[in-house]
Amino acid sequence: MMKKLQESVVLRLGREVKQGQDSGMMTYDECHTHDVARLRASASSGEDVRHGTATVRPRMEDEPDGPPEDEKKSGPAPEVERHLFEQRKVLIFGGVNDRMARDITGRLLALAGESDRPIDVYVNSPGGHVESGDTIHDMIRFVDSVAPVNIIGTGWVASAGALIFAAGRPERRLCLPNTRFLLHQPMGGVRGPATDIDIEAREIIKMRERLNRLFARETGQPYEKVARDTDRNYWMSAKEAVEYGLVGRIISSAADLEQA
Predict the structure, then answer these.
(1) What's the rounded mean pLDDT across residues 129-148?
(2) Residue 147 belongs to some domain of the structure
(3) Is residue 127 in some structural domain?
(4) φ, ψ for residue 151, nearest 5 deg
(5) pTM of the predicted model as reported, rounded to 2 decimal places
(6) What pLDDT is attached to residue 188?
(7) Where is this region: Disordered (predicted)?
(8) Which of 99, 111, 109 is nearest to 75 (CA)?
(9) What is the CATH number of the domain that holds 104?
(10) Weakest-pLDDT range from 40-49, 115-124, 159-168
(11) Is 159 a catalytic residue?
(12) Can you give the residue range of the structural domain that contains 230?
């Protein structure tokens, strides 16, 4: 009896596969190959795919989740790390992600607990995850109530990196002469049921409005101007960033920093 049932199931599945091939439908193997390709494409685009539910990881720049493997092994040596901590200096270099947010949060809290002397935060970043940028932004504000924080831009301060930079007090937002700044709207990939996609799309729009208001408040620019500027990539030189209100002062030496 069981053997006949198994044979019946096998025959039925065989007919369904044959019908699928004749009608142009994908077979199981083809579906599997398609799903693997879709998941790989989603992973490479930053999407988070979970059983058909619309999910999104908003970013402010299309950058990797973290530095390449060779860069992960080339961080400051322990001796350098010790000297940086003793001198109360924090480096925010590379893509903004959860790992960076946790590391910077720990450093800031440790420094604030050790002394109320100023902390120097150096930023050179292409951007990354909005929420991770929010975490670092809020933590700088949190720690600044205990120990003043100087934000020094160098290289490029782009996207979520600019969000972090804007955490400093206007007079303590500094940059080196050749620093470039980039403001733009957040972006993210999403897939899933239409209703969930609509929810996530509205969340990204709300996030964009929140960030525009934050930059308007920190720069003194009208909200409408910031909204227009960030609708596309808005690049600024160090001098232009000062005129925009994002940077308080351009410095070129350690002595200039001591005046902050």
Answers:
(1) 97
(2) yes
(3) yes
(4) -105, 120
(5) 0.73
(6) 73
(7) 40-80
(8) 99
(9) 3.90.226.10
(10) 40-49
(11) yes
(12) 78-258
Q: Which candidate, 58, 68, 121, places its Cα nearest to that of 94?
A: 68
Which of the following is catalytic: 132, 184, 252, 253?
184
Domain count within the chain: 1
- 30 pLDDT more than 90: no
125 flagged as catalytic:
no
Distance CA 156, CA 159 (A): 10
Instruction: State pLDDT tens for residues 192-226.
Output: 898 888 898 899 999 999 999 999 999 999 999 99
| Domain assignment of residue 40, yes or no | no
- Identify residue 118 by its one-letter amino acid code: P
Can you read off the two tokens belonging to residue 210? 């929140």
Residue 51 belongs to some domain of the structure: no
Q: Which two tokens stand for residue 29?
A: 């193997």
Contact between 108 and 150 under an 8 Å Cβ cutoff? The reply is: no
Whole-angstrom Cα Rg for the chain = 25
The residue type of 40 is R
As given in the structure block, the two tokens for residue 233 are 């990539």
The size of the chain, in residues, is 260
Catalytic-role residue among 129, 132, 137, 159: 159
Strands 149-158 and 180-183, by their bridges, are: parallel
Q: How many CB atoms lie within 10 A of CB 74?
A: 9
Output the average pLDDT for the chain: 81
Give the separation between CA 90 and CA 238, rounded to whole angstroms. 21
- Three-class DSSP category at 42: helix
